[in-house]
Every structure is written in structure tokens, then in C-alpha cells.
């Protein structure tokens, strides 16, 4: 122990004697370790971490495939993933008739208006079955949680559980909130408890403010009332999670549930009276049912975030490897100047183990300080990363940026591995010292093995730098292509926000009038040129569709006739500047009781009518057309746009008047301005508040800001990749500079002799940089094919750029050459400036 303390004190003295060297190493390690800790913070929550519930390994969820004909909604609005969702009657059948689960819970998301002490806000909510908390094995922080008795008959259980975060941030963490009343969508609910502190939701990445029973769904989600979701077999909207009975494996549950599934599907088949024989076969016989592991929770965002996180984790891993190599190189160069010191210690009888211990402790101190700095940096980077990747505002992030015990353990392990790697480099140098040679010389020398390691290290750094630069170039080109492509409408002077009167307690009968009044008052604001609204907002990932029949067109048996179906108010296309190709827009006369009309997009017109002009006056019918009633007349055709995201054009779409909707609900408002849109945001909020103080203006932002949110993944990948690549290039340049500077110092006598014998100074410069130039060339040649291979692996993340992109590859090589040339310039200049006589006299 005394020896250890002595070595530690000596290590600290040595590092204090070289503050510049110590600071360089600590900063290098902090950047590499901090970047890894930040990325792992999100990587762990999205892809690795189990739900913070009792025995999460017993949890499973369900996924089905087969024919589907009905309405659906999902977390995030993706209509393609309907196989993850179930109707409420099917939920009850699965819950009550299975033999392999101790229980099955159901859950769905909602956006509600919450009023507390006369302050109205729009918040997320989770609609859950009464056994939700019991099945997950959770205990309340305050009060009690739901039981099945809190979820009985429809609209008969006005109770709520608030999340721990909402209780702390909005309710003042007051214990007396239990029993108090809170308004949800204008209806009184009694707070019965507070959810546990470490639990957000059974759905990954979802952080609701409150929980309400499924029996209250028509109050929490008013637009569901006409669908009668609690009885409708053809409306899929619930995510189901089950807990296996003791002794039952997932494989056994899977086999048992498949039989039950086919039986229940057969019972539902009579609901589809006009179904074809093929539909019947796909609905029952060919339908599949799978029991999947749910220990990590169902996460709708996992697929979208998985590849970006793997890419970022890979880049961060490469960066920490570069940092470790760079530090190892610096320690080797420092070791060269300590040759006389270590040789003297050996000559005086020091044991090899004591020398090794000293060097390991010095490296360990550097590694510890670097890791501590990296952990301190990690939450700041992680917070930015979460906001960028999830397009969330500060305070509403779906994932935590704090460093917990899992991140600490990961960082500790990473730090130990990196520290051992760079600490061992000088150990090998001094493991078998050449005492006589070292004591005779005034400067230290590196062994041939050390010299080989030094060259290999620089080569690896250059190769990884080219690799990271190329990847950054591909992602930046993707981001740039997405940013500059045509959306089909204009965003420059648009302001958008969500407005849902039902969240303030308005009935459906009054909702459309409130929306109309809001449009009218906003239109009169100074600087506002046009206002309109839609039920299917642009570039937020949502999708709203329905099945349509076209008069005179007979679809094939398997043809998909489900199309995007936004409901819009008059002047919508002129407000967002989506071009009207032919016909007219909707007007205030297109209301209930008037002839039903539609506007289609160019994709729909080309598919069914050939040209936009041929579409005007043609008839449509919403539904399958089993009972022909083509009562919707096409009155206009508009251009195609990018709707759900920036990558894909909206397919065939049918726009219908909002004012002809039977059951109107909330909308996304769009306000076109003449001055910069940010100048009218305050006036918009104030105007809506004056119209009715209970109305909530949710997510008010410019449309340009919404576009930035839509391209969040690409922007995050591009700029983080550029950051990693820039750091890698700087590290490679520092490593090359250190090696060349030391090489120049060691060859001073040789350079003096060459100059004295008449060698041109240009030849001396070439002598210094030639070997490293060859290493850099070989490293680049090795890196380029690797870059192309990795580009193919992640090509789904690219847009408008090939993996073998000459601009990207050439740019990566050019930047590398420029940076390395700058790094080599100073040592080469010193070599050329050597005075022969002075060099010879010094030796």
C-alpha cells in the first residue's frame, strides 16, 4: 500500500510538471469518453433497458397479420403498423379466454386539455385498462393506483392518476392533491394517486402527464365517440401487454394463443358480410399471431431511432479508439524523453514490476481524470442529442439525459479498457531497457517496436479519420438534399399550431363553429394574409386515410383502395401555396346539407383518370362500393406534396371539406403572413385566448421550424458525424505532428551531416515527410473501400446520394490531405532550418 501511495504521488508530480501534456490528454479522453457516454445514454433507453416494473422478463406483447378492413390509430399515427394494435372487444376476448397469462393490459395515447387552478394546457395522456398498474407490479408514490373497479361501465369512472413528473412540475409535489378535482377536456376528474417516480409508461419513449381508464375514452378522445370504440370490432387502437403465468414459456404461450386467435377471428368474420372468399381466407386461415418479448416495452420510435443510434454509437466508438491511440502515441513520445530516468532507476536496482506499476498508475490517473471530465460533459451532449433526434422541445423530451448507474458502469468499463490500452504502450518500451545506450545518450530513443507502433498508430488514425469524414459527408449530403428539395408547398411565411376545442370541453356540435370563428378572427390580424386548417397536418408523421370507390373503376381483388383523406377548410391550398392544377378550392358553401365534394391530388388523377382535366366532375364513394352510392363529386385537382415526411411523396389522396364532416374534432391551423412569421406568433396566441381563454394553442411554431423537426434524424446524423469526423481529423493531425516533431529531433545530427555534405533543404524536408506520406496514402487506400461498404450497410439512411459518391470521397481525401499537410508543415520547416555546424557541435 505504501508503494502504491508513493507511485500515486510521484505520478501526480510528473503530470504537474507537464501541464500542457496533461491537459491535452485529459481533453482528448474527455471528448471521446463523453461522446460515448452521451450516445449510450439514449442508446440504452431506446434499445437496451428493460421496463422499470416488476419482473419485466415475464412481459410479452402481441403482433398479428392478416386481412384488415376497418379503422385504426396508433402511437405516432403510422397506419402501416396496424398489426401491433387491437380492438377493445378483441382485447376483452383475449384477456378473458386465454389460459397462459396472469393478465393482459390495454393502453392508448391521447392529447388532452388539462385545467388546474384556471390554467389550461395541452398535455399527453395515456388511456389504460383498470389492471394496468397491478399487472406491471407498480406501487404509488402518493395515494393509490387504478384497479379493475376503476374501469367498469362507459363514462362512469371519472378518476385519474397523474404521473410523478407532472405532479412534481405542475402540482407542486403536494400530497394533498389526492381527492382534488382536475378538468380533463372540460370534464371533472378526481385525482386518486401519483404514479411511481421511476415509471413513465409501458410504451417506450412516451411520457404522459396523466392516466385515465379506458371506460373514459370518449371524454379523453372525443372523436372516438362516433366510432363507439368500446364495442367496435373493426376499430383497432389498443396496444396490449400480457404477463406470462409462472412456469409458462413464451413459446408455449405462442402456440396456445394461435389457436385462440383463429377461433376469435372466425367469430368476427360475419361482421364482414360482403367480403370475398379470398378476404375470408386471409382473415382467418392465413392470419398469424405472435407472442413477442416485451421486457423492454413496445416502442413505436424504436425502428426510426435504431439505425441512427447504431450509426452514432459506431462513430463514437471509433472516436474513442482514436483518442486511445492518440494518447498512446503521446505517451510513447513522452516515454522517449524519460529513457535516462527509467534506465537510472533500473541501474539503481528498481524492480521491473515497480516500473510497470508506476507507468500504469500514471496512465490510470490520466484515464480517471479524463473519464470524470467526460461524464461531466455527457449530460449536456445527451440533452441536445435527445432533443435533436426526437424533435422535442426543452422540458418535453421523451428520454432522460441524466447519467444513471448503467451509463456510469458503461463509462467506467470503457475508461478502463482505453486506459489499459494507452498505459501499456510505454510499459512495453521500458520492459526490456538498454541501460548502457540510454545512459550514454543525452536524449531518449525509442525501440524499433515502439517506432513500428508509432507508425501503425498514425496510419490507423488517418484511416479512421477518412472513414468518419466520408460518413459525415454522406450524411451531410443527405441532409442537404432533403433540405433543398421541393415540398410541393411553401413554408417561408407559414405559422402553424394545433387547436382542439374538444380539449376545452366543447361538444362536436360547437367544435366546427369554434374553428370557423378562430379562422375568421385570425384572418383579421395585421400582417395575416390567409388562414386555413386541416385534420391531417403536414410533415408531422401522421396519416389519416379511408377506403374509396371510384365510379366506373373496378379494382382487382387485392388492390389497395385506401387513400390519404385530409379534411380541410376553405382556402387551405392557397394558404400553404399548394398549386391548384384545375377546378376550384372548397368554399364556405361546402357545408353539411350541401352536395358532397372532393379535391384529389395529381397522383390520384393520374391513376384513375389519366389527366387532371378528366377528373373534374367524376364521382367517388367513401367505402368499398358494395352498395353503390357515388355521392362525392370531384371539383378540383392539386399538385402532389411531401406529407408525412421529407423523403416520400404523398400517394393518391382525397381532400374533403372539414365543414361537411359528421363528427368534427381538432385541427392543425396554418396562418400565412406577409411579415416574417415569428412577428405574429404572440398576436395569434393572444387572439385565440381572447376568443376563449380555455382554448389551448398547442405547438405554435413556424412551418420552417416544423420542417426542421421533420428532418431531425438527418440533421442530427449529419452534424454529429461532422463533429466526430472533425475531432478524429484533429486527433490524427496531432498524432502525426507529434511523431514528425520527435523524428526531426532524433535525426538532428543526420540532418546536419546531410546539409554539410551539400544536400538541398528540399530533400531534407522530403526525407522527414516521405515515410509518413506513404503511411497516409496506404491508410487512405484501405479506408475508401471500407467507407463504400459501410455506406451500403446504412444506405436506407441516405437520400439523393450514392455510397460511391465522388464528391464525398474526394472531399474526405482532400480534407485529410490538407489537415495532415498542416500538421507536417512545422516539423518539416524545423528540419529545413537546421544549421549543420550547430547540430554537429550539439552532438
TrEMBL record:
Entry keyword set: Cell membrane, Membrane, Transmembrane, Transmembrane helix
Residue runs in coiled coils: none
Gene Ontology MF term list: transmembrane transporter activity
Transmembrane domains' residue ranges: 21-43, 309-334, 355-388, 408-431, 456-476, 716-742, 763-787, 807-828
Record's subcellular location: Cell membrane
Domain of life from the UniProt record: Bacteria
Residue ranges annotated for the ABC3 transporter permease C-terminal domain, each copy included: 314-432, 723-836
Database matches in Pfam families: FtsX, MacB_PCD
InterPro entries documented for this protein: ABC3_permease_C, ADOP, MacB_PCD, Macrolide_Exporter_MacB
Topology class, membrane: Multi-pass membrane protein
Chief place where the protein resides: membrane
Similarity comment: family membership: Belongs to the ABC-4 integral membrane protein family.
Protein name listed in UniProt: ABC transporter permease
